[in-house]
C-alpha cells in the first residue's frame, strides 16, 4: 500500500497563508494559534520577573510584524540552553507609496514601490487587492492599529499588447510601467456625482486649513481610503496613515495530478513560519511535556528579511538577543532540587552560558531542482519536492550550517514522527536533503549567518524545496509541510538531550 503522507498539514497551511497577505496578518495568524493553545502575551516594556515562570508559555510582538514565542521547561535554570527556530514573515511585494494618487488618460492609477527582490513581471495581469495596517484615531483621541484585507480585486497591472511592443524578452520600467490601474476616472466621478471642476474646487478649499501633511484623503484616491476605512470599521476621516501592500486575491490551493503540489503566494517564507509555529504547538500537546524539560523551546518570526533585516523588527536587530538575555537569567522553579542541578551563585555569565549551549535553526525556503533549467544545479545537490527538508550549505558562509549542526539535525530527523501514512504509526523518521550552489552561481543568504555572528550560537540553515521563489505565485511540495512540522517538533522534543551529546568547543 502507498505510504504517502496525508494532506492535513498542507491544508492547514493553506488556511494560514490565505489569511496572511502581510507580515502584520501573519503575526495575527500566529497569535491566534498560540493563544488558542494557552500562550500568554507579554510585552517588552514590562518586567518579566514575576510573569515568566518555569512551565509557562508566552509570546511577544514587535511592531505587530515580528513575533517571538517560547515555552519554559519546569527544570529550567539560569544559563541553560534554548532550542530556537527562526523564520521570517515578509515576502517581496508592491507597496502603496505615501502619495499614491495618480490619473492618466482617463484611468485612475495607484503609485507603488517595490519591496524586496521580486520577480516583478509576474505581477502583471493579476487580480490584485490591498491589505496591511491602518492607524486610526478613536473617539477617545488615542491612535491604534487596525488590520485590513480587502477581499475583492480592485487593482491590476496591465501588460502592453504584443501588437504594440514586439520584443523577444519582456522588459519594463519599474517606476513608470508598474503602476496598477484602479478604475476609470469618469466612473469614479459618476459614482460621486461630481464633475472635474467640483473636484478641483474641493481640493482648493482643503488647502485653506494648515496641516503638517496632507490628509490620506488628499494623498490617495478618496474611494480607496473609504474602502480601507470600511474594512477597518471606522470613518474615513479617522484614518491618520497606513502601510498597505498589494496582494493577489487568488487563493492558495493544492494542485498537481495527485494533489502533491501547493500553488501559492508567499511560500517564501510563510511555509517555514507556519511549520515553526505548528511544531512548537505540537511539541506541547502533552500536558506533561515540560515537566522534565530543562531547556526553553523558542520560535522567532522576523519581518524585513527580504530587504536585509536591518530594522528594529528585523533579525539583525536586538530583538532575539534581548529576549534571550532576559530568559537566560530567569530563575528556576522553587520545586527544583539543588541536588539535581548545580545552583549558580550569580547570573553574571548566564547569558553567555545560554548562548554557548543553544542552537538555532534558520528556516527559510530552499530551491527545488527545476526541470527546465537542470544546468543551473550542482550535479549531486538537486533537491526535489516532497523528498524532505533541505539542509543548505555554503563554503563562503552565505548559510550558517556546519557539521555539528548537521549531526544534531540528522538525529532529530531520525527520531521524528514519520509523516502520517498507511504504515504503522510507531514508525519514525523524516527525510533530509543537502544543497549547495554551483561554483559559477551566486548564492542567496538568510537570517542564519547574521544571528549566528551576533550571538555565537550554533546555527543551521534549512528550508523546504520550492520553485518560482519570489514570484507572485510559487510552487511547493504538499507533503513537505508535514515533513518540516515533524522535523521541527522532534528538534524541540529532543534538543535538550542531543545538545549534551555533541560536544564541540
TrEMBL record:
SUPFAM superfamilies: Aminopeptidase/glucanase lid domain (SSF101821), Zn-dependent exopeptidases (SSF53187)
One example of a Gene Ontology biological process annotation: proteolysis
Protein name: aspartyl aminopeptidase
Catalytically driven reaction(s): Release of an N-terminal aspartate or glutamate from a peptide, with a preference for aspartate
Organism phylogeny: Eukaryota, Fungi, Dikarya, Ascomycota, Pezizomycotina
Tree of life domain: Eukaryota
Keywords noted in UniProt: Aminopeptidase, Hydrolase, Metal-binding, Metalloprotease, Protease, Zinc
PANTHER family referenced in this protein's UniProt entry, alphabetically: ASPARTYL AMINOPEPTIDASE
Protein family: Belongs to the peptidase M18 family.
InterPro entries: Peptidase_M18, Peptidase_M18_dom2
GO molecular function, one term: metalloaminopeptidase activity
Required cofactor names: Zn(2+)
Organism of origin: Sporormia fimetaria CBS 119925
Stored Pfam families: Peptidase_M18 (PF02127)
